[in-house]
Amino acid sequence: LLGVGQISAFFGATTLLSQEAPKLSRGAVGGAFNTCGAIGILVAGGLGGRLFDSIAPSAPFVLIGILNACVMLFAIYVRIKAPGPIPVKS
Questions:
Q1: pLDDT tens, position by position, 31-57
Q2: Are 47 and 64 in contact (CB under 8 A)?
Q3: For the chain, is the Cβ count within 10 Å smaller at the N or the C terminus?
């Protein structure tokens, strides 16, 4: 179930990326998105492994939960500060 949740979040982000990125630079934006994702996986895996060994087996899950909460708070901040135009339904 954890894997299903993670891949769902990834597909949602990829869909949003393809909608919002300018057509001429979608490839570069997608590449940067995937590179940042790979770096995040490496850092989370390395740090999570160290936390697993030094603190507890549940520590990597707590780390990812805290990081997800930070991302959520940042997304709320961005939404409040720069809401963008309201779409008009036709």
A1: 998 899 889 889 989 999 999 999 999
A2: no
A3: C
